[in-house]
Amino acid sequence: MASLLQQELAAVLQRDLPHLFNGALAPGISTVRVTPDLGQARVYLSLLLGGDAEARLQDIRDNAKAIRQALGKRIRQTVRVVPELIFFHDDSAAYAAHMDQVLGSLNIPPAPKNDDEDDEDQPARPRLFNNE
């Protein structure tokens, strides 16, 4: 059910209701999670491109009824009840990019080379077996 909703919602947002985004790129749907009773669907949107993410999310939430009706027209032959759509901003891609930048900026010195000659300075390793 979740994958059906994800595919059909993407089609609705890109083809049926592109006017909701005022010429901006339609958001990508990263995940859809449906409650066990199929009454609600949590839709996580990727809003990286196209301006202010919070303003775009609020526009989508304001038009949730129209989006649900357009979705219902597309899947009415497949499901009995169209779930209530609850939209969330999925910022995992932005977080991953930030963490990549942080890790890339770390200055990690190379590990020292381990020479066999320096073993005299090391404490003796305990023997666990006789054949070591």
Automatic annotation (TrEMBL):
Cellular compartment(s): Cytoplasm
Predominant location category: cytoplasm
Q: Which keywords appear in this protein's UniProt record, sorted alphabetically?
A: Cytoplasm, Ribosome biogenesis
Q: Return the Pfam families for the record.
A: RBFA (PF02033)
- Note down the stretches annotated as region Disordered: 106-132
Q: Does the keyword Cytoplasm apply?
A: yes
Q: Which family does it belong to?
A: Belongs to the RbfA family.
Subunit structure of this entry?
Monomer. Binds 30S ribosomal subunits, but not 50S ribosomal subunits or 70S ribosomes.
* Main function: One of several proteins that assist in the late maturation steps of the functional core of the 30S ribosomal subunit. Associates with free 30S ribosomal subunits (but not with 30S subunits that are part of 70S ribosomes or polysomes). Required for efficient processing of 16S rRNA. May interact with the 5'-terminal helix region of 16S rRNA.
What's the protein name?
Ribosome-binding factor A
Organism field: Hymenobacter saemangeumensis
